[in-house]
């Protein structure tokens, strides 16, 4: 019982933006350092991984393409959890988290699409096919842009928070469709081969670099996310201070 | 609720309600297609069902921003939201969606067979497309209600509504077109995508009004 109380207490502590900024300031250098080290190891392992007997060296695109694709889905999940945080628990930082995550997720989705099409050209002989997974990821990209457009269209963050959260949650319907699109429809994109029942089909010489790259990019996402959240808080403070300054200046003149 | 339905339907039918403009837009989109792809009748017959669906989708999106905008402008939206302790707001939104669908989308469905003749489609294909439109377009309106409710407080939300709603309507389009093709091409099934289309409509008739009502509530306070 006391455990639960202390846990929820910690979450409520974070609702104070100053405490969050302090925490972010102390965590960020460490997180950034670990991210750099993990990514460096991951890159080195990917470079030294053996060429595939069929695909040659293009198989190495997998080491960045797969993490990007995973992260594009994870980022939307993070946004949906943040949206729940806004609507259910009214956590003040949830809205900041959702707003900060959207552009990062859009970039990861775009990178997954670009690297995928670069990989598809030598392997499938085409840049783009309208198969289930590619199309659903493209729809995910459009939804990120829609969410960003909606947040930008409303100047007042207090107003845009709830409606953006609702839109994000409605759009979450797409995530299971992406995940299982390769199992439901027989398409050009291969089915899941890393995480599945009965163990991975990937050889360990590919699996390890891939996993380390995935961890590295996940850490990179969280580093960027915390930095973006910090920026957003600072931006809101600057806006609030400008308003106060303008109001007091008006009073002096009047 | 019945009074609300009749009131919304009347407002929609009156001049400037946008119902007629939607049909004209649908007509114009279909008329533009032969200019774009050439007057080859065989090709037109093949893509006809898809073109009818895309035209109906765009025409439905066109009128969506009016779903709550006019009511917000004259203040009756606030009254509807305030009355939510007597009538559940979700139900109110559902009734508004149904009225909007009856007035501005049902005419599109009625006009579809005529436009199908323009596209040189077979009678079976025309019937199938009209049937799928009848079952599928309510889903578009109900999804669109979420977008319209989200953008209601924006001064120029019309384009934004389309951008937000379009990605979410893609499943409707996929299953609607595949059911229409299933009716004419032999190996493809008709019933399975048709039933999924019905399921999507029913699913969004629950989720759509609920989410739209939540967005409307938050837009006022």
Description of the structure:
The complex is a heterodimer of chains A (254) and B (221). Chain A is mainly alpha-helical. Chain A is built from eight helices and no strands. In chain A, helix 3 crosses helix 6 and helix 3 (62-89) packs across helix 8 (204-253). Chain A is elongated, with a radius of gyration of 21 Å. The termini of chain A are far apart. Chain B is an all-alpha fold and 221 residues long. In chain B, 84% of the residues lie in helices and 0% in strands. Chain B has nine helices and no strands. Chain B starts with a helix and ends with a helix. Classes of the chains: A mainly alpha (254), B mainly alpha (221). The A-B interface holds A 87, 135, 139, 142-143, 145-146, 149-150, 153-154, 159, 162-164, 166-167, 169-171, 173-174, 177 and B 143, 146-147, 149-151, 153-154, 157, 160, 163-164, 166-168, 170-171, 207, 211, 214-215, 218-219.
Count all strands of chain B and give the number. 0
pLDDT < 50 runs, ≥5 residues of chain B: none
Question: Biggest sheet of chain A, open or closed, and with what strands and sense?
Answer: none
Oligomerization status of the protein chains:
heterodimer
Characterize the overall form of chain B: elongated
Q: Rounded to an integer, what's the Rg of chain B over CA atoms?
A: 18 Å
Class by SSE composition of chain B: mainly alpha
Helix content of chain B: over 70%
Portion in strands of chain B: under 5%
Provide a count of the helices of chain A.
8
- Proportion of residues in β-strands of chain A: under 5%
Q: List how many beta strands of chain A DSSP finds.
A: 0
Distance between the termini of chain B: 24 Å
H/I helix tally of chain B: 9
């Amino acid at each position: 019982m006391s455990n639960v109380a202390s846990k929820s207490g910690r979450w409520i502590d974070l609702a104070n933006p100053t405490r969050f900024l302090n925490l972010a300031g102390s965590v960020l250098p460490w997180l950034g350092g670990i991210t750099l080290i993990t990514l460096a190891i991951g890159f080195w392992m990917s470079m030294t991984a053996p060429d595939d007997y069929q695909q040659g060296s293009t198989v190495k695109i997998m080491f960045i393409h797969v993490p990007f694709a995973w992260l594009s889905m994870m980022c939307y999940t993070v946004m949906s959890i943040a949206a729940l945080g806004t609507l259910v628990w009214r956590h003040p930082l949830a809205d900041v988290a959702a707003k900060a995550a959207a552009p990062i997720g859009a970039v990861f989705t775009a990178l997954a699409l670009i690297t995928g099409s670069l990989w598809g050209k030598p392997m499938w002989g085409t840049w783009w096919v309208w198969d289930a997974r590619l199309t659903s990821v493209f729809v995910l990209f459009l939804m990120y842009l829609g969410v960003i457009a909606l947040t930008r269209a409303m100047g007042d963050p207090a107003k845009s928070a709830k409606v953006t959260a609702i839109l994000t949650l409605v759009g979450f319907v797409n995530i299971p469709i992406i995940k299982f699109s390769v199992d439901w429809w027989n398409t050009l994109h291969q089915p899941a081969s890393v995480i599945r029942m009965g163990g991975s089909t990937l050889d360990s010489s590919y699996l390890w670099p891939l996993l380390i790259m995935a961890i590295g990019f996940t850490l990179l996402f969280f580093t960027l996310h915390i930095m973006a959240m910090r920026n957003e808080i600072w931006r809101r403070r600057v806006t609030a201070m400008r308003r106060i300054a303008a109001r007091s200046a008006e009073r002096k003149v009047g | 609720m019945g009074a609300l339905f009749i009131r919304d339907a009347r407002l929609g039918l009156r001049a400037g309600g946008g119902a007629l403009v939607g049909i004209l837009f649908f007509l114009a989109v279909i008329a533009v297609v032969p200019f774009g792809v050439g007057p080859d009748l065989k090709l037109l017959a093949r893509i006809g069902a898809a073109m009818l669906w895309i035209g109906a989708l765009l025409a439905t999106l066109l009128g969506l921003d009016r779903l709550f905008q006019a009511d917000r402008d004259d203040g009756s939206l606030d009254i509807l939201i305030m009355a939510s302790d007597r009538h559940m707001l979700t139900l109110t939104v559902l009734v508004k969606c149904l009225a909007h669908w009856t007035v501005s989308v049902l005419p599109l469905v009625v006009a579809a067979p005529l436009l199908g003749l323009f596209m040189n489609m077979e009678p079976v294909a025309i019937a199938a497309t009209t049937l799928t439109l009848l079952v599928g377009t309510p889903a578009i309106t109900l999804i669109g209600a979420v977008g319209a409710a989200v953008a209601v407080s924006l001064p120029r939300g019309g384009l934004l509504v389309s951008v937000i709603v379009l990605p979410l309507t893609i499943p409707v389009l996929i299953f609607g077109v595949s059911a229409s093709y299933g009716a004419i091409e032999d190996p493809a099934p008709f019933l399975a995508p048709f039933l999924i289309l019905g399921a999507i409509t029913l699913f969004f008739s629950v989720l759509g009004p609920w989410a739209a009502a939540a967005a409307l509530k938050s837009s006022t306070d």
